[in-house]
Design goal:
Elements: E1 4-7, E2 10-13, E3 16-17, H1 18-25, E4 29-33, H2 34-47, E5 53-58, H3 65-73, E6 77-80, H4 83-91, E7 99-101, H5 108-117, E8 121-124, H6 127-140, E9 144-151, E10 173-174, H7 178-187, E11 191-197, H8 208-226, E12 233-235, H9 252-263, E13 269-272, H10 276-279, E14 283-294, E15 299-303, H11 312-316, E16 322-324, E17 334-339, E18 348-355, E19 362-365, E20 386-391, E21 394-399, H12 404-408
Parallel strand pairs: 4-20, 5-6, 5-13, 6-7, 7-8, 8-9, 9-10, 9-11, 11-12, 12-13, 15-17
Antiparallel strand pairs: 1-2, 2-3, 4-14, 14-15, 14-19, 16-19, 17-18, 20-21
Helix pairs in contact: 2-9, 5-6, 8-9
Pyridoxal-5'-phosphate binds next to helix 10.
Length: about 425
């Protein structure tokens, strides 16, 4: 489903008028569709059929507790990378037994909390981290279930900043050295190896790298079985891409079908950690045109959303499609650079876009449900945007706009 479609000349989110939302809550404004979030998580879940599996939504993608709650209610597990994300999952009603904990430097306090609430598995990213988890588990007299994140060294063919499965990335351990680390882990008194983990990158638009990675993970599993280490699950990470413009990523069910074909009836539980493919196209960012500033060389449209609200274009030169909420019937298209009010030359959301604009127009940045709000900052002391979840004809404010007190209230002047 596409939750965002035009009706009577205006873009709607499900059955809610986006012009109306912008008037009520102001801009910049993130708007998510509940139905789209649910549909995409369920598409992953259902595609597994009889294969034992758990679809752990990657919390970093969009961590609003209303988003997590909607997914928890339909049975989602969660992939977290910090205690902060764990606290969100718990407050959203998520089941800790369905939580996997990734990330290269889990703090002792984070490990302790995760052991206390009883998460499913720690995805260990180095030998040093194995020792730290053993130490904390021993102090608590608990057994830590672990998998080792291996680096299968496959080229994910995505942006270098979001490719994670290559030898020279900071993530995971070299797949060739993993057997040694598993042997060592198995000898630790408070560690129980239960799975293998990998995650090769994000915004992948081809199936082959996923299948290549799985092949290497299966070979490792066979080797470990021979060495007497039996594992209960394979965690294949996230990474399935979405369409931002003209990309043609595989459909969710094609991607899962390719994994199942490679598994060839191996009855092992498969965990996946999709983020973008669930939340990306379930959200838009609404922004208003402040001023039009045509110059001799270029036309700038200055909008009220900036790189602090949505950093992907500035950080990765990502293309995010930008459309008029109510396309004009008067005037004509011109080419515009859509820039924000932040004092940085890199502050743009789109360049050279053909749009028919006037000051005051409302625009929607598409595919902004993933890595939008979660990567937002307060740079230039700009309050972060409000967030709305639409559910049919209803709109719920799921995060109010920040106030200046929210921003400045944590600070104090020195008194001398
Ligand atoms: C360990 C891990 N799992 C899952 C994800 C989610 O990735 P994506 O949003 O591409 O599905 C990420 C981010 O790339 C990650 O680092
Ligand atoms: N934040 C990135 C993806 C990185 C994924 C984090 N593991 C993006 O916006 O595309």
């Amino acid at each position: 489903m596409n939750p965002f479609s035009y009706q009577n000349g205006t873009l709607m989110a499900e059955a809610v008028d986006l012009q109306h939302l912008a008037k009520t809550y102001g801009t910049p404004l993130y708007v998510y569709s509940r139905a789209a979030l649910e549909e995409r998580w369920q598409a992953f879940d259902q595609a597994f059929g009889a294969q034992p599996h758990l679809v752990c939504y990657a919390v970093k993608t969009n961590s609003n507790i209303a988003v997590l709650n909607v997914l928890a209610k339909i049975g989602a597990g969660f992939d977290i990378v910090s205690q902060g994300e764990l606290e969100r999952v718990l407050r959203a009603g998520g089941d800790p037994k369905k939580v996997v904990f990734s990330g290269v430097a889990k703090q002792p306090a984070e490990i302790k909390r995760a052991l206390e609430v009883g998460i499913r598995c720690f995805n260990i990213e180095s030998h040093a981290e194995l020792e730290r988890i053993q130490e904390v588990a021993q102090q608590l007299n608990k057994i830590a279930p672990i998998s080792i994140r291996v680096n299968p060294d496959v080229d994910a063919k995505t942006h270098p900043y979001i490719s994670t499965g290559l030898k020279d990335n900071k993530f995971g351990v070299d797949i060739n050295t993993a057997p040694e680390l598993y042997q060592l882990a198995a000898q630790h008194s408070h560690i129980q190896p239960i799975g293998i983990d990998c995650h090769i990158g994000s915004q992948l638009t081809e199936i082959k790298p996923f299948v290549d990675a799985l092949e290497r993970v299966l070979a490792l599993k066979a080797q470990l079985t021979q060495q007497g280490i039996e594992l209960h699950h394979l965690d294949l990470g996230g990474g399935l891409g979405i369409q931002y413009t003209d990309e043609t990523p595989p459909a969710i069910n094609e991607y899962i079908a390719a994994l199942l074909a490679k598994l060839n009836d191996t009855q092992i539980e498969v965990i996946i950690e999709p983020g973008r493919a669930i939340a990306g196209n379930a959200g838009v960012l609404l922004t208003q045109v402040e001023f039009l500033k045509p110059t001799a060389h270029k036309n700038f449209a200055i909008i009220d959303a900036a790189m602090n609200d949505l950093i992907r274009p500035a950080l990765y030169q990502s293309f995010m499609d930008i459309i008029a909420v109510t396309p004009r019937t008067d005037g004509s298209d011109a080419q515009w650079d859509l820039v924000g009010p932040v004092c940085e030359t890199g502050d743009f959301l789109g360049k050279g876009r053909n749009l028919n604009l006037k000051a005051g127009d409302l625009l929607a940045v598409k595919s902004a449900g993933a890595y939008g709000f979660t990567m937002a900052s307060n740079y230039n002391t700009r309050p972060r945007a409000a967030e709305i979840m639409v559910d049919g004809a209803e709109a719920h404010l799921i995060r109010r706009r920040e106030t200046y007190d929210d921003l400045i209230g944590l600070e104090s002047v020195i008194t001398e």
